[in-house]
Structures are given as C-alpha cells and as structure tokens.
Amino acid sequence: MGPMNHMGVLLPTRGVLVYAKGGRPRVELNWQMAETAERIGYDSVWVGDSITSKPRLEPLAVMAALAVRTHRVKIGTAVMLNALRHPVHLAHSIATIDNISNGRVVLGLGAGRGNNQMFLDEHAVVGVPIAERAGRMEESIDILRKLWTEDDVSSPEGFYPLSGVSLEPKPVQQPVPIWLSSNWVRRGLRRVAAQGDGWITNVPSTEMFTKCWEKIEDKAKELDRDVSGMPRALYISVNLNDEDEALSEGDLFMRAYYSTPYEVISKQLLCVFGPAQKCIDAINRYKDAGADYFIVRFASPNQMEQLEKFTELVVPSLD
What we know:
Elements: E1 7-10, H1 15-18, H2 28-40, E2 44-47, H3 59-69, E3 74-77, H4 87-100, E4 105-109, H5 117-125, H6 133-149, E5 153-155, E6 162-165, E7 178-181, H7 186-195, E8 198-201, H8 206-222, E9 232-239, H9 243-258, H10 262-268, E10 271-273, H11 276-288, E11 293-298, H12 303-314
C-alpha cells in the first residue's frame, strides 16, 4: 500500500468563487482536479461546506457531478455541517449520491464554530438556532443511519420527530462511513468516540493530535466501543513554494477564505507553507503520532500546479 492509498485532495469549491472575483466561477476546475487526482492514484477527493458564511459551490450537487465524472476515487465531505440540513433530506441526497457513485461516499461531518457572527447568521438563515447545533448533529447521525438501513423508522422525540418513515433508495454501502471532525473540544471528541466511523482533525501540533486521540480512546472505552481500527485523518493546508512566496500566497489564500490572516489561522489549524521537505517532515511526524489518512488542501490560486508539485516532490518521500 503506497501513501496515495491513504491520501485525498480537497477540491476548490470555495476557491473557484474566491478567485472569480465576482465573475462566473470556473466550476470545471473541480472536475479537472478530481479526474487528475483519480488518474494519478489518489484515494479520494473532498468538498467543503458552508451555505452563506464562506460562499462556495453546494457540496451535494458537486458530489453528484463528481460521481459521474470519476470511477474509482472516494468522494467525501470535509466537512459537512449537517446541523444546517434536515436529516431526511440529507439521508436522501447521500443515498442517491452513493448509488450514482456505486458506493464511494464518505460523509465527513462537523459541528462548525459558533464564535463568529457569520456563523450565527448562517444558522439563523436556515432556521437552526446555533446553540442547538451539537444536539441536532448527534441526533441527525443516528437518524441517517436508521433511514439508510431500516424501513419504518420512528423516532418520536427530539429535534426531528419521525413516524413510520421508509426512505429509498438505500445506499449501496452498508454502512456509508461517517467520519466526524473534532479538534480539542470535549464534546466533539466524545462524539467521535460514540458515533464516528472515522476521525478528521486539523490540530496544529502532533502533541495536540496525541492528546485528542487519547481522549477519544478513553471515551470509547467508557462506552465499550472499539476504535482501534478507526481511520484518523489529518486535514492539512499546504503551499509548496519557497518559504517567502509560500507564506505570502498562503496568507492571501487564508484571508480570502476565512477573512482572517495566516498568523491567526495557523494557531487554529495545521498549515505547512514552504518547501517540500517541510511538508514531508510534517506528514511523517503526524504519521508517527498515529494519523493514517491525509486530506490535503492547497492554499494557493494555482491548484493544479500545487497538486503536481505535491505528487512529485512530497508523496515519494513519505514513509
């Protein structure tokens, strides 16, 4: 198994809007990049999510298109804010995409952040009080799994009362894997332990990665759940230029993406901007700490060029 069997590429579903500067986005860059990633041997392609806070192409629509344009790669969300969607709609969409793709969906889910007005507004605009997002998310995960595997689903309590619901089509995969994202957040890590088929994180240090995983293991033990085989995915933002250019391009990317400069973002999530060796070292360090899957986002307007550099300069040197 080469390193590419454990590696996916984030597609620029937000980048194409950012770089369109108000013009029509180059949506086709997403297909080109996915087809290229598939051809050269990556395991998966991923799309991010937000509705109004960080404008981008709608993820489920893009996944359906990717399902038709590709044949082998897994198609994942890194990550979808599922509290923003009713689980019956989401279950229906994901089951349909799993059928279109012949069983290649990985559903990465996250609670998102509540620390910013744009996130409050985004929840309000779809009628979801942001304070309910974790509870809705957790209930939704249980409902998704029920709707995909059972007929006549009833769940009278909670945010999403259901009575005698049968949803078709059922997904091809039984089950569709649900990977849950969390950094150092107690409830998030508990959710990974209780409900996750995989863990996605972008913590900025291996020490933090190890602490988070230990917390997941402790919680899983309490719940009598075995997580030893659970994929541990690191989401990493990369810019492979020489140091100065990588930093300036990466900083511009982060400001455009998050409306926040790199210095602030880099303390919250893992960014490796600079020559290939820096990236090789970082990935190998996290591998040693137990990460066994990598989702790579290129923090650059030159997505295809970065993918090429990463494939040629970084991948061959990974353990």
